[in-house]
Each structure stands twice: as C-alpha cells, then as structure tokens.
Design goal:
single chain; about 475 residues; 21 helices; Purine-cytosine permease
C-alpha cells in the first residue's frame, strides 16, 4: 500500500467514509454512469406523480406545458453543468463545508438547519406519495388536495414503516443511495411510460391533435389553485430544483465526479423525469377527471384528490402500486442523505449514519401531514427561493474573486465565525423580493433569479468594502 493510499484511508476513517470536511480523494471519484442512474431515479420519481397532476389543476394549456417544460428543463440542465458541476470538481467539498469556509461557522449553522429541515419536508412529501400506494390493499382513505392532518391510524402506521425503511437505506451513505437509484430507476421509468401509454388509450387518443386537445387552450384553475401560463411553467420548472443547481446543494453530489461533464447526466432526470414522467402523470389524472366521482366533486366546487397510488393502480394495476412506492423511495433517499449532511455540519461529532437517521425521522413526521405533498408546487417554489441565493455567494466568489481582489474563503482565512457580507447580501435580497412577491402578488419563482443575482452582487460589494476595513 502506498503512502498516498494510507493517507486516503485515514481521511476516509475520520470522515466516516463520506469526506464531509475534506476534499474527495482521487481514488473515490465516480464515472458519469453513477450520476446518470441517480438523477434518472431521483427525478423520475415520487414528486413526478404529484407535480404532473398539479399542472392540470393549474389550468395549463398544451403549448404552455409541452414547450414550457422543454425550455425550463434545458435551463436547469445548463445550470447544473456550467455552475454546480464546474465548481464541484474544482473544490470537491460538500455545500455545507464550502459555505462554512466563506460564511463562518455560526452563520452557516443557521443555513444548515434551514436547509436540512426543508430537505426533510421534501422527503416527507415523497413518503406521503409512497403511502398512497401502500395503503391501497388496506382500503385506506386517500388524502385530499386540501388535507393537512393525518386521516387515520392506518395512514400513520404506513407512513412510519415507509419512513423507517427509507432512512435505513439513506444512512448507508452515498454508495447505497446511488446503488438503490440504479436498481429502481429502470423499473420506475418503465412504469411511467406504461402509465402514459395506458392513459392515452383510456382517453381515446389516436392522433397528435387528440393528444394536444387533452390540455387544449387551458382552463380555469381548480378551487384553491392559481392559473399557470407559459412563463409560470418555464420559470417554475427551471427553479423546481433551484436549491440543488444555482443553490449549489449538489456540490455534495458532484464532488464525487471525475469531470464536470458529468453535469450533463442531469438531463436524464429532467427529460425522462421532469418531462416524460410529468406528462404521463398528468395523463393519469386526466383519466380520473373524466370519472363520475371527479365530475361530482368539480360540480360541487371541490378539487378532485391527487393520490398517485390509486391513479397508477387504475392504469397498470399492481405494477403501478410498486412503481409509486419505489418512486417515493428514490426521491426521499438522496434527499434524506443531503439533509443528513446538513445536520452533520451542525453536529459534527455524530456519524453520517446517525444524522441521516435523525433526518429520516423528521422526514417521516413531515410525511404524516399530506399538506406538504398536496401543496408541492408552492412549497418547491418557496424552498428554492429561500436557499438559492446562498448558492450565488459561492458562484460569484468562485468566478469573480480574482478580478475584484477579494480573498477566497474569507471566513476561514480571517478566522471569522460570522461573515456579515454573506448575511447582509442574503437578508437584503430575500427581504426585498419576498416583499415584492407578497405585496404585488408576484409568482414566487419569478423573483428567484433576481434575488439570486442581487445576492451575488451584494456579496461582492460588501466583501470588497469590509475586507478593506
């Protein structure tokens, strides 16, 4: 064994095998195939069974959905490839450790707490999705669009059991998360494709015009939902994973990549998952909307429920139930893994496995409450808006610190616990654009990019000013 490999083994032992506070060594880097499976599995997954139908409840037109999703997902792929992956392979650090070097330990602790909790809520919504499938054989009442609380003991037991299994898989580390995604993703992709084909047959689609007419020129949104236009679809689909790409959360994933070109593998998730799977799931809901039950609810001024398990079961039976369960897992697994890394930055003495179990427990509790899944479009928009501007700090420092003469990783260099340049940049950008969104009723995703850009610019300005002092 060479001295280099002995040092690597020592690093791995200290970091628990996940290199939370050290750069990933060369011998642990992974090929693009590892990321392909993970992104295809993670994004052709549980959220897709919810988001596709929710677009229908927002009254989108055919053009807005088909063209808007294509453009928005392209922008997301480009963000991953040229921002996230590019920076990840240069530093090979987790988001949390990288941000700590820039912001200081005290400031990043609050960010990590918010990030971890929001990840847990997202994972919880995916546990909810899986529960709608597992509950079918038990004749479990399904949650409605406006439900917030658990609807019975059966629901609670099923959610807790699913959450426990998902947490144990995530606690095994990145390798297990990646392997689980590789095993499950082909099954899930096939299920989405099958669901779409069966739903087209059930809708009597025999031509492109028939397919187009499913959405047509759009409709009025369902009760309690807002109307989505072309730009709503483009911008929302771009920033649906804003915390992961422009927010730099996936630095924690791509630090294992051999090359920045691995960032292109996110296209598998965007176009298999966020395009084909969203549309297939919307078709399942379109079938349900024609049922007497759904028509009766609409006539009474109520929005028909969006329960992925029954929708998939109606199309492809037991295979659909299995697919929904697996789909929830492949989204929740890496999400809980990321949440565990966030909590470990706060509790560094705990092992990766222990903090991941903690994250899984919080996610399971969140999964008991259907509101996180049923309001997923709004929650994802808020989640990206809160976290994405912090990514701007990393991006703007990486690309502009030399030109402006700013010290890189300033908190580490100056032994700061709290970098006020980061704090002021985030508070001002977040506060200003959240006020604009609320005061003038602006769709939150529309102000995510302006907030991100302003945060990055303000960080540079404040850094230049305060570092001189």
């Amino acid at each position: 064994m060479t001295q280099y490999h002995k040092e690597e083994d020592i690093i791995e032992e200290i970091a628990g095998g996940e290199f939370e506070r050290t750069p990933v060594p060369q011998s642990k880097l992974k090929s693009w195939k590892s990321f392909l499976g993970m992104y295809a599995g993670e994004h052709a997954a549980g959220t897709e069974f919810m988001i596709g139908p929710l677009f229908l409840t927002a009254g989108v037109s055919a053009f807005d959905l088909l063209v808007g999703l294509f453009l928005g997902n392209l922008l997301a792929v480009l963000s991953w490839r040229f921002l996230t992956a590019e920076i990840a392979i240069k530093n090979r650090l987790t988001l949390y450790f990288q941000l700590e070097k820039i912001s200081g330990k005290k400031l990043v602790t609050w960010y990590n707490l918010a990030n971890g909790v929001l990840f847990c809520f997202l994972a919880g919504s995916m546990i909810t999705v899986s529960a709608t499938a597992v509950g079918i054989p038990f004749d479990m009442p399904m949650p409605k669009l406006d439900d917030t609380m658990p609807n019975g003991l059966t629901w609670i037991i099923i959610v807790i059991l699913i959450g426990a299994v998902i947490s144990l898989i995530a606690a095994r580390g990145y390798d297990m998360v990646s392997k689980a995604a590789n095993w499950m993703s082909p099954v899930i992709v096939l299920a989405f494709l099958a669901c779409g084909i069966v739903a087209l047959n059930q809708l009597g689609v025999s031509s492109l015009s028939d397919f187009w007419n499913i959405w047509g020129e759009g409709s009025e949104p369902f009760p309690g939902q807002i109307k989505y236009t072309f730009w709503h679809v483009v911008i929302w689909s771009w920033f649906a994973n804003g915390a992961m790409h422009i927010g730099m959360s996936d630095l924690s994933v791509f630090r294992f990549a051999k090359k920045a070109s691995s960032g292109w593998t996110t296209a598998a998730g965007m176009y298999v998952g966020h395009y084909m799977a969203w549309i297939a799931a919307a078709l399942l809901y379109a079938v349900y909307l024609k049922s007497p039950e759904a028509q009766a609810l609409l006539s009474g001024g109520e929005a028909p429920p969006v329960a992925p398990g029954p929708l998939a079961n109606n199309a492809i039976g037991i295979f659909g139930i299995i697919a929904v369960v697996l789909a929830g897992w492949t989204t929740a697994n890496p999400t809980i893994y990321r949440a565990g890394l966030a909590f470990q930055a706060i509790l560094p003495k705990l092992s990766t496995a222990k903090v991941t179990i903690l994250a899984g427990s919080i996610a399971t509790i969140a999964g008991l409450f259907p509101a996180f899944a049923m309001k997923l479009l709004g929650f994802v928009a808020l989640y990206g808006f809160i976290l994405a501007p912090f990514g701007a700090v990393i991006v703007f420092e990486h690309f502009f610190h030399k030109k402006l003469g700013i010290v890189k990783n300033y908190a580490e260099a100056a032994n700061l616990q709290f970098n006020k340049s980061v704090f002021l940049a985030w508070v001002i950008s977040f506060g200003l654009f959240y006020f604009i969104s609320v005061q003038f009723d602006v769709f939150l995703s529309f102000v995510t990019l302006p907030a991100w850009l302003l945060c990055g610019v303000l960080f540079l300005v404040f850094s230049k000013t305060f570092q001189k002092q």
